[in-house]
Write the structure tokens for this entry.
Amino acid sequence: MALPDPGSDLHCIIWHTEGTAISGLFSWMHRLKQTLPAAHVRLELASMEIQPFRFTQVADIDAFYDHRIRTGLELVAFLKKNRSAIHLINHAFDYVTLAQKLSPPLLAQSRLVGICHTDQDYYYQNLQQVDAHLRGIIAVSPLCALKLGRQLPHRAGTIPILPDWDMPIPPPRIHSPSPQAPLRLLFNGRLLHLQKRVLDIPPLLELLARRGVPAELTVAGDGPDLPKLQSALHAQTSIPVRFTGALPPWEMNALLESHDLFLQLSEFEGASVSLMEAMLHGLAPVVTAIDSGTELLIDEVNALLAPVGHLEAIADRIESLHHQRPRIARLAQAAYETAATHLRELNYPQRFASYMAQFTT
């Protein structure tokens, strides 16, 4: 597909329902605003606010978003004003349903594109429900594309795989912790046991403590299971834990660079933004072997993998790194090279623009 005519930028609007709450999508949108103009895409962001925000906001809404939709009338006016734009709806499925009730002809004229961000029934079911209103669908992983093609046979073969990985490639910063230093673990993500399995963290730390593994953990993020997590961690005192709260993406680099291992315990993902960020900043990944989002990882080469919920196995992998510290640098170097090579080949802004250009007519 051809790129947009350089003399006429492609107008694209991304809908989002969580304001400036920390998530991989927020990081992705933040970076797209910076990179897509070079691919001749004029990107705008729409904050869909008819329903109240559920999570802590980390930035000024008006400074980050170009549109704020707080009533049904505002939604109709927004669609009328931006009829020629391409609308990437993220997980704002309810707003498509609302637009159908308020003005079916207007919705039919709107150029909507869906995106499956996670290997989760929530996305598959909602994309099925709004499929008739979509010009196209993007998947962030091969598994997401495969499942969508099975559930929507008429879409099979038309769904591009475009993970939410539009990020700069920093210079390599690889180091090996000294034998005496505690392993510096980082968990960065939504504090939600459903999907992220954050309540596996306390028993995992207890296992490490019993095995005599010197470690310290930083938890970056916010979410509904934060109180439960803090309460459970309060009971164990052997391994220090620090909570940073929700940090915007522009404050993450220093935190990433001050850790050794990236811990991801998820039960399912799409294409984890936080994992890719960690790989680019010299952390060795210790992650669960899930079906979507680990396609670039090879156990014992650029990551250590363990079954979901198998805390003994995860503790084994971390303990092995404690006793063989040079492996950390080797894993981190390989992870960095894997991520950097993939991002160069992905060339996200141009691929995004190329796919969206077909919907301008």
